[in-house]
Amino acid sequence: MFENLQLLFDYPSLGVDLVANGLMIGAIFALAAFGMALVWGVLGIINIAQGEFVMLGGFVALTAAGLGVPPLLTIPLAAIALFILGWGLYRLVIFRVVDRDLFVSLLATFGLSIILQQLSNEIFGADVRTLETGLGTLVLFDGQIVLAEIKLVSFVTALTVGLVLWVFLKRARLGQAIRATAQNARAARILGIDTDRVYAATYALNAALCGAAGSLVVMAWTIHPYIGLPYTVRSFLVVIVAGLGNIVAVITAGLGLGALENLAGFILGAEYQIAFVFVLMVILLVGRNLWLRRKREYLK
Amino acid sequence: MTKAQKYSLIGGGLFLSLVAPFLLPQLATQLTMLWLMVVFALTWDTLGGQMGYNSFGNILFFGIGAYACAVLQRDLGLDYFIGLAVGLAFAGVLSSLVAIILGFGMLGLRGHYFAIGTLGLGIAAGEIAGGWDYVGAGSGMVPPLYPTALAGRELFFYFLMFALALATFFILRALYATKFGLALNAIRDDEDKAEAMGLQTTQVKSFAWAVSALFLGIGGGLAGNLLGFIDPRDVAFAGATFGVWMVLMAILGGKGTVWGPVIGAVVFHITQELFWTYLLGWQRVALGLLIVAIVVFFPNGILGTLREQRPEWFGEKVEERA
């Protein structure tokens, strides 16, 4: 552990390389986190199946590419497939838990995540998979920083999708209806908004976002059926740091988490990288709660 | 239900549990696991049902117990049975201590933050154990073997686990009947008010977690020895199986009751074993479906539903409508 830290001090460019690569994946975390914030804010549900949507997006992209679709075109395909899945899940399960106790929705989405995880294990197999895009690598500053082009592509795509979604929420009719429902569902209903449809659209939109994120993950990194939970926790982490309504904060927090995680993975060793994410979440939660306690409040 | 009926039912159940391993020796390990499930559900319900703190990470204490016991057995080099006894005691105490230490930070969190925070703790522990060479890292640990010269390994563990389940049941039931039980329920109903009434909520909460961690830790030590292999992610800190099951069993039986978790554990374990037999390969998918179905359609559990349908069984008087 200390040798790695020493290495970082001796070769600062290594640190820059790690941070750059971390920022790239951080954009994907931000995308999934944005979806989670959307569902949390509008439906009042913390979606534990978030990571499974990411994983499924990856498998959809893999399958499509296997059928001959060019890799980059699989991104919208994954988003559409997951949109349909999200809509279906809302109609089957989620609408029953929207107005219920948070614990019920938490457990219900946990159950969904187990179903999706095990189904994809049965259908796609438990192997670690990746999608070869055929893009090269960028070598910057005399080989000090090595960056796969696909990571850059995924970074830009993730940010673009996030921004498009933000504009959609601000300008489009449905986007405005979603925001109105988030502010006050009852008032929205009185004003003639079909909140049930808004909920369905929001949940489906979230799934689509995760699907797009997943297709980027499979191209730039790897996926397997059990990667879901870490992505859920990363989204949760980003959301509790950034809050529910602020897209700039979500992107910043997502990028920060990506960079931090990559650095920690190098210093502590890759086997502790996931542990780091989970421990970081616990520390942040407890820390913020202790901070609030000084004002006799707690996280709500 | 009259008193006589109730006692004959309980007596019958006890008698069945005593003779079951002799009648069905090939199922002895599954029956032992059944009692472990009862311990799981009961200890989860201390926080989840009685205190209103839904933990998704109680598996943490089970895993700590499993590892603590096995490490002690490995390093002390005592006779098997003495080593096991020392290991189990240490497992329980260590788990309780961890619960108290973590409790000061974690138990300040409420609602879903507590749920997700504890979930994170459980998974993180599995990941750390999976990378830590001292406890065998990813390849897990093998606790010392039961002396081969002696027969009756299955029976030995069956009755130990049975005794643990009984002890858990009676101690928790006795605790719920005291002022401490009332304090737990007060925290569940309105924590701010309970605090305003002068209740030391942090102490009560930490103590409750420590009690449930004690039994879970001992259960972990026993389970490690019973299974003969401790895998960091699939046995000790198995959040996606044991960790969720304990929540589910308590809900299925009826949260916040003494008998609910016991009934829930029995029903769930049998269902689960049937899934394993008849849906091989798809049993986990079926379990996920079961989770969703129970949570969405049956959140009051068996006892909660019975109480609505047959209040007279619970000694509640029903006013006849004129």
Record keyword descriptors for this entry.
heterodimer; A: ABC transporter involved in vitamin B12 uptake, BtuC; two-stranded antiparallel sheet; globular; B: 322 residues; mainly alpha; 75% helix
Number of domains of chain A: 1
How much helix, percentage-wise, in residues of chain A? over 70%
What's the average pLDDT of chain B? 85
Overall shape of chain A: globular
How confident is the prediction overall: mean pLDDT of chain A? Answer: 86
Order of helices and strands of chain A: HHHHHEEHHHHHHH
The radius of gyration over CA of chain B amounts to 20 Å
Strand content of chain B: under 5%
**CATH architecture of chain A, please?**
Orthogonal Bundle
So how many helices of chain B? Answer: 14
Care to describe what's here?
Helices cover 76% and strands 3% of the residues of chain A. Chain A is mostly helical. Chain A has a single domain (2-270), classed as Orthogonal Bundle (ABC transporter involved in vitamin B12 uptake, BtuC). In chain A, a hairpin with a 4-residue loop joins strand 1 and strand 2 (145-148). In chain A, helix 1 crosses helix 2 and helix 2 (12-43) runs parallel beside helix 6 (149-171). Chain B has 322 residues and is mostly helical. Chain B has one domain (26-268): Orthogonal Bundle (ABC transporter involved in vitamin B12 uptake, BtuC). In chain B, helix 2 packs across helix 12 (259-278) and helix 12 (259-278) packs antiparallel against helix 13 (283-297). Chain B is globular, with a radius of gyration of 20 Å. Chain B starts with a helix and ends in a 13-residue tail after the last helix. Classes of the chains: A mainly alpha (300), B mainly alpha (322). At the A-B interface, helix 4, helix 5, helix 10 and helix 12 of A face helix 5, helix 11 and helix 13 of B.
